[in-house]
Amino acid sequence: MAELLQHLVNGLVLGGTYALLGIGLTLIFGLMNVVNFAHGEFYTLGAYAAFAALGLAGLNFFLALLGAIAASTAATKWVPARPSVANAAYAPSV
Q1: What pTM was estimated for this model as a whole?
Q2: Using CA atoms, how far apart are residues 69 and 49, in angstroms rounded to an integer?
Q3: How many CB atoms within 10 Å of residue 72?
Q4: Dihedral sign for Cα atoms in the order 77, 42, 54, 65
Q5: 30: which DSSP letter?
Q6: What is the b/e burial string over 19-36, where b = at least 16 CB atoms within 10 angstroms of the residue's CB?
Q7: Helices (H), 1-94
Q8: What residues have CB less than 8 Å from 59, skipping those under 6 apart?
Q9: Residue 41: how many CA atoms within 13 Å on its side-chain side?
């Protein structure tokens, strides 16, 4: 019975993760009409930051979660904008 409960919780967490990724991609595509492939990269960066904070630094889960959010947010500020790529999506075809 305990294993069934654990599998249900794992399925809900994984489903919530997929839902958040899907909502983020839909929001960006709906507003900008450009698929943001870096969305998954920032999600992965946050996951690695949380893993490093939990495993290597020995922080508790909630502090690791806040650190992962801060690392992902900081990474989005440091990534240079590429207007040529964004403009190419809206350029008329020749």
Answers
A1: 0.53
A2: 9
A3: 19
A4: positive
A5: H
A6: eeeeeeeeeeeeeeeeee
A7: 2-32, 38-51, 61-78, 83-90
A8: 53, 67
A9: 6
For tokens 């992965």, name the residue: 44
Q: Running DSSP on this structure, what letter comes out for residue 80?
A: P
Phi and psi for 46 in degrees, rounded to 5?
-65, -40
Task: State the pLDDT confidence band at 94, using cuts at 50, 70 and 90.
Answer: low
C-beta separation of 43 from 21 below 8 A: yes
- The length of the chain, given as a count of residues: 94
> 68-80: per-residue pLDDT in tens?
888 878 877 766 6
By the 8 A CB rule, do 72 and 42 touch?
yes
Residue 44 tokens read as 């992965």
> CA neighbours within 13 Å on the CB side: how many for 40?
4
